[in-house]
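STRUCTURE:
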């Protein structure tokens, strides 16, 4: 199941994009090997440990599982664009244990090089020089055994950055140290262990869901919004596209929306309607003030479109030939063909061959029948000299050129040529479908215009081919 999907997802990724997959230990190792095959081992970026539990489960049989894994792969590691993390001065790690006169946090590191391999005068002769201690003595870098060591900085850098140097009068006399400031470590690389106080736990996520909808059964394995925020901060910039093809309770879309990213979610289950759509409505109208809303000052805005995907119109039969999917009834097929041929679907109640039109005089007729010369002659008569008809059928016998007002197309080829189903380049043009805009009095409305697309609208999309419209 996963291989096909990973291969498709890889194709959908932008060249500098990344994919993030959360798994427990049951599946993680298998997914790692599969991802190595699909994305290439060289495109593995990291395995992040998310501390999903905030307390031990006393009823665990052997171990109380505290973490999930988040596998991160790039489409192409050499092009991958992953952001570093901003340092928050309130979150400065405890080893920055000193504060300077301006309130900046720092720690001290010895100026003498202490690596085991090349910390000798011999290894870097230019880094062996004398510097003057507070008592006026000239100090040289000496190793504990008395042999010549070296400083970490050359003389030039020492001269330039002297104000960062602090002297400590220790047992073996004055020794220089230099300050490492927390704020110069801003934009540090993300680390691979994410604790629950930083990004939330399953319990946090459950509480977030309860706050959103008291009366709705919470999704069983939700993720906290802060976890998705961390991922999106690293993996994306404002305006980027985020896809969650297994949307669950819709956390990815909700967080992406609040962070000004564009998003697509796909969900098979009924919780698309019970969880995701109601949740996104609350995001858009600004009533969702939980999760990361306060942190990103979310006030509402934007919109979304909802599609119900039809089954694929074509499928392969046992002879490996493309045939029309038997799940399609006549109406679905006719509507699909109208869209692909650029006709407006408008089936006539009285004229069986009018399924749609492109102009007042140009019509389309869709049938899975095989038409013979008599059928074609009868149709041509009915259409008459003033009108034209495109006939999409499974096959025909006879010579269509004998009827100037008829054009014939075989359905599978016509659809294949336009949709390219089953090919690498999947170019079904959803953008061309008409969008029905709901006036701004609806619940989905938000304040107007900014980079997050705050147009205050939810476009309700007719289903691609089939019946039913929701949003
Ligand atoms: C564990 S949840 C994912 C949660 C979500 N991605 C998150 O990070 O919070 C997996 C979801 O995938 C959905 N799913 C499973 N197979 C699917 C498919 N073929 N297409 C779309 N959704 C699918 C399930 O219904 C379920 O809601």
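SEQUENCE:
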């Amino acid at each position: 199941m996963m291989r096909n999907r990973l291969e498709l997802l890889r194709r959908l990724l932008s060249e500098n994009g990344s994919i993030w997959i959360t798994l427990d230990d049951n599946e993680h190792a298998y997914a790692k090997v599969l991802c190595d095959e699909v994305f290439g081992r060289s495109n593995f970026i990291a395995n992040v440990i998310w501390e999903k539990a905030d307390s031990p489960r006393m009823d665990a049989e052997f171990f109380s599982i505290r973490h999930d894994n988040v596998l991160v792969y790039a489409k192409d590691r050499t092009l991958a664009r992953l952001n570093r993390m901003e340092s928050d001065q309130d979150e400065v790690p405890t080893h920055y244990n000193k504060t300077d006169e301006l309130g900046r946090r720092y720690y001290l590191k010895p100026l003498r090089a202490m690596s085991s391999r090349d910390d000798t005068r011999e290894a870097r002769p230019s880094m062996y020089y004398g510097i003057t201690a507070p008592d006026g003595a000239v100090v040289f870098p000496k190793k504990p055994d008395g042999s010549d060591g070296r400083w970490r900085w050359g003389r030039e850098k020492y001269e330039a950055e002297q104000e960062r140097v602090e002297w400590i009068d220790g047992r073996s006399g004055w020794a220089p140290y230099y300050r490492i400031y927390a704020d110069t470590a801003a934009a540090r690389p993300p680390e691979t262990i994410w604790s629950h106080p930083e990004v939330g736990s399953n319990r946090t996520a459950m509480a977030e869901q309860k706050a959103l909808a008291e009366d709705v059964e919470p999704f069983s394995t939700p993720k906290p919004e802060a976890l998705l925020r961390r991922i999106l901060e690293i993996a994306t910039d404002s305006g980027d596209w985020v896809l969650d093809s297994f949307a669950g309770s819709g956390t990815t879309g909700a967080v992406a929306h609040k962070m000004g990213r564009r998003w697509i979610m796909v969900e098979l289950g009924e919780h698309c309607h019970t969880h995701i759509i109601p949740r996104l409505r609350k995001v858009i109208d600004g009533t969702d003030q939980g999760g990361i809303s306060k942190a990103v000052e979310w006030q509402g805005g934007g919109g979304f479109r909802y599609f119900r995907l039809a089954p694929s119109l074509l499928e392969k039969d046992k002879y490996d030939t493309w045939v029309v999917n038997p799940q399609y009834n006549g109406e679905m097929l006719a509507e699909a063909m109208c869209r692909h041929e650029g006709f407006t679907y408008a089936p006539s109640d009285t004229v069986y061959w009018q399924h749609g039109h492109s102009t007042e005089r140009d019509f389309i007729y869709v049938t899975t029948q095989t038409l013979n010369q008599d059928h074609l002659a009868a149709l041509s008569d009915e259409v008459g000299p003033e009108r034209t008809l495109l006939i999409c059928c499974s096959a025909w016998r006879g010579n269509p050129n004998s009827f100037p007002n008829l054009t014939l197309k075989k359905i599978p080829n016509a659809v294949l040529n336009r949709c390219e189903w089953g090919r690498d380049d999947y170019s079904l043009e959803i953008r061309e479908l008409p969008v029905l805009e709901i006036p701004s009095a609806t619940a989905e409305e938000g304040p107007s215009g900014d980079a997050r697309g705050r147009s205050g609208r939810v476009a309700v999309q007719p289903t691609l081919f089939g019946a039913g419209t929701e949003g």
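REMARK: Residues 22, 221, 223, 244, 246-248, 251-252, 266-269 surround S-adenosylmethionine (CB under 6 Å).
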